Description:
Elements: E1 8-16, E2 26-33, E3 38-47, H1 55-59, E4 69-76, H2 80-89, E5 103-110, E6 115-118, H3 123-140, E7 147-154, E8 159-167, E9 172-177, E10 180-182, H4 186-196, E11 200-201, E12 215-219, E13 226-227, E14 232-233, H5 241-251
Antiparallel strand pairs: 1-2, 1-5, 2-3, 3-4, 5-6, 7-8, 7-12, 8-9, 9-10, 11-14, 12-13
Amino acid sequence: xxxxxxxxxxxxxDFSTGDIPPPFNHVYKLRLSFDRNFVNTxxxxxxxxxxxxxxxxxxxxxxxxxxxxxxxxxxxxVWETPFKKLYSQSKWSNQKHLGDAGGIKLLAKDLHGKLxxxxxxxxxxxxxxxxxxxxxxxxxxxxxxxxxxxxKSISSEQVWLYEMTVKFATRKIxxxxxxxxxxMAWEDAxxxxxxxxxxxxxxxxxxxxxxxxxGTYIDVGDGLWHDFSQGVHNLDESFDAKSQIQKTFExxxxxxx
Length: 257
């Protein structure tokens, strides 16, 4: 028996990467309270078993020696509805404990004082939403700036520069096309971001300088430009993520004409 989503006043999410090696192995806990005009939040993330590794082994994987983090504070109330909506749409497993593959387990409390502990079957949905919320935490705490994605298409007739700022804290998108503001819904941006992070990007040939030659290029948020013709590679042969990325951005041209 699960709670009515509209009655929930608290959620706790416990995540584990399961049985994967360091430096990737980690756990985090999110405690969310919905009884005020904001989401009262506690967040703890801890990377585990790194004592086995050297500093070089850790930093070569893109980590630092100080990746553990704690946060207590207020996140905008706009986040309450997505969590409650996902709870109402979720299916639940019969598991009592997470296995070697890890995942998320939940504790929910309603306004009547009822507590329910469960493990959702739709793990990907919960993990994706949790990661978005963690990005919101990093923005609010000034640990990270909002994500800026840039896409540039250069032809003999026209140059299109798209600048998409993803504001996780407020679940809003600031989109500029050649300096002019455009409109993009949060859910559309989520789908685009999912496609953007599917391909493999060749950082050996990525460039810091903004491209000026004919072609199609993307900066995925780290300030480096990747050439679609040689620096971006689909990993899944059954899905052309590159074409989907181009199509989504280029369709925005219709609204600027």
